[in-house]
Amino acid sequence: MLKFRIIYYIFSSALVLGSIVVLILFGLNLGIDFAGGALFEITITPKEAGNAIDIERWLETATEPKIGEARVQDTGTGFLIRLRALSEKEHGDVIALIQNGAQVYAKTAGLKESVKITEQRFESVGPTIGKELQSKAFLQLALVLSGIMFYVAWAFRHVGKVRSQKGFAWKFATVAIIALIHDVSITIGVFAVLGKFFDVEIDSSFIAAILLVLGYSVNDTIVVFDRIRENLIRHRFENDLAIIVNKSVADTMVRSLNTSLTILLVLFALLFFGGGATFYFSLALTIGISVGTYSSIFLASPLLYDWERKK
């Protein structure tokens, strides 16, 4: 396995660099959780009494209340509307505005059925709260990564005695964090592309998915590292570290792949049958766990080997 590590490094570097590039070029399409604003989900009966383009026009040309930019998405069963943060009065005014616009549209189109607007959902977050949630999300990720690093270093604190080298445990910890950053970067990069071309938003459920990916991925990496530790103790007089690392990866590969495949089967079921509410949460987990399985097997152990053999 180690003889192909340069290929793994090139492949991983390309994915991470690509993710950084698209993140710089496209940025992240932040949802109202982080950017602030209002989110409506409405249905219009009859459906022919309005469309996304017309609803945007009704809202953006309104003078009372003055809405500014409006983003309207046709969900198939209704419309998802994103606006600036609204007061309670403005909330009611917007519904009335859409009602009036739909009635005029229906009359012009010759529709005889009376127009009805049904509000399915409404959320509003102020810009200050949105920025506060952004800060808390970054803090959560930083604390999780720091906690993982210290835990891995503590868990492998005795392995340095086998190699007669201080600080070996911190190599395990640092490599584990590098693998996690690799996994998160690629997942975020994919969602930057989805946000640019498919209007997919980053919200609190995405942060929850990232935290779950971190937990799963580090567990997968620790399984491989723990087998390396066992084999270092068992074969303490074996001077060829490559043999030990290759054996450890081979010993744990089937277990890692089987575990990941089992989880991915569940996630595929959620993706295809879970509905829109869980789709992007499941997609983030699917991408993160797939990449995490790859990094645990093909990236973390080779990095540890190269760092240790150059001591």
Concise synopsis of the structure shown:
This protein is an alpha+beta fold. It is built from eleven helices and four strands; from the N terminus they run H-H-E-H-E-E-H-E-H-H-H-H-H-H-H.
Structure report:
- Helix 7 (168-198) runs antiparallel to helix 11 (300-309), helix 8 (204-234) runs antiparallel to helix 9 (241-273) and helix 9 (241-273) runs antiparallel to helix 11.
- The protein has two domains: 1-30 and 127-308, Multidrug efflux transporter AcrB transmembrane domain (Multidrug efflux transporter AcrB transmembrane fold, Up-down Bundle); 36-123, Alpha-Beta Plaits.
- With 311 residues, it is an alpha+beta fold.
- The longest helix has 33 residues, at 241-273.
- A four-stranded antiparallel β-sheet has the order 2-3-1-4.
- Helix content is 70%, strand content 9%.
- It has helices at residues 5-26, 32-35, 52-60, 88-108, 127-155, 159-163, 168-198, 204-234, 241-273, 276-298, 300-309, and strands at residues 37-45, 71-74, 79-83, 116-125.
What is the CATH-assigned architecture of the largest domain? Up-down Bundle
Q: Look up the CATH topology of the largest domain.
A: Multidrug efflux transporter AcrB transmembrane fold
The whole-number mean of residue pLDDT values reads: 91
Overall spatial form: elongated
- The strand line-up of the biggest sheet is 2-3-1-4
Q: Roughly how many Å is the radius of gyration? A: 26 Å
Number of β-strand runs: 4
By CATH, the superfamily of the largest domain comes out as Multidrug efflux transporter AcrB transmembrane domain
Largest sheet: 4 strands, antiparallel
Provide the CATH top-level class of the largest domain.
Answer: Mainly Alpha
Subunit structure: Forms a complex with SecD. Part of the essential Sec protein translocation apparatus which comprises SecA, SecYEG and auxiliary proteins SecDF. Other proteins may also be involved.
Domain Protein export membrane protein SecD/SecF C-terminal: 115-309
Transmembrane segments: 7-28, 137-156, 168-194, 206-225, 261-281, 287-305
Keywords: Cell membrane, Membrane, Protein transport, Translocation, Transmembrane, Transmembrane helix, Transport
